[in-house]
Amino acid sequence: MERLQKLMARSGVASRRKSETIIQTGRVKVNGKVVTELGTKVSVSDEVMVDNVPIGKEELVYYLLYKPRGVISSVKDEKKRKTVMDFFPEIKERIYPVGRLDYDTSGLILMTNDGDFDNYLTHPKYEVNKTYVAKIEGIPTNEELKQLRVGVKLKGVKTAKAKTNLIEQNPKNNTSVIQLTIHEGRNHEVKNMLAAVNHPVKKLKRESYAFLNLRGLKVGEWRPLKKYEVDKLLELATN
């Protein structure tokens, strides 16, 4: 016997947390009956359906996508905009993005049908570094860079320490290029951190996720993760 949301995550329906929401909204049936209680336990002999579609254990898969700008990090979009799913038309497993990248942000995003993997990499208590490169307005001072390194307050809550590297300065255009490494995953965090030190982001790209990078990929391309990469990510997240 195991909890319903864990079975759903293991079966590739969604992450464990997203599966809980699916259960609570009445979209899940166990042996023909709608179940909304999160503590429900099921066995291998129980029939579980999500949106009237039976679930079965899928092979666990993991992909790295170089997301272009102008693409939604979601399985579907109500406004019919392009999503990360449009790059995987031949993948039969029910994959979804691990975390998210903003619509106008490009770069590395992971895709999987492994709910536990998703949970380990996105839960706030697990610290996995993500590195971004941003083109920003203005040229930051040493004091402003120090603020980013010690943490800035966003809506009254201080961010974790960031690593910074000022890559390029263009006094003529009054712009700079800065590299920022963080391990948190708040919405719009990098943009908000840079805005908090008076340097709004003009363009943003996530160039690495832990030890993974975009080397060898063009915008819109993807590759499967190797087994040792999956194992190493889980090790980083849980240790």
From TrEMBL:
Record bears the keyword RNA-binding: yes
Family according to the record: Belongs to the pseudouridine synthase RsuA family.
UniProt EC number: 5.4.99.-
Superkingdom, taxonomy of origin: Bacteria
GO molecular function term, any single one: RNA binding
Protein name: Pseudouridine synthase
GO biological process assignments: enzyme-directed rRNA pseudouridine synthesis
Domain RNA-binding S4: 2-61
One Gene Ontology CC term in the entry: cytosol
Keywords, ordered alphabetically: Isomerase, RNA-binding
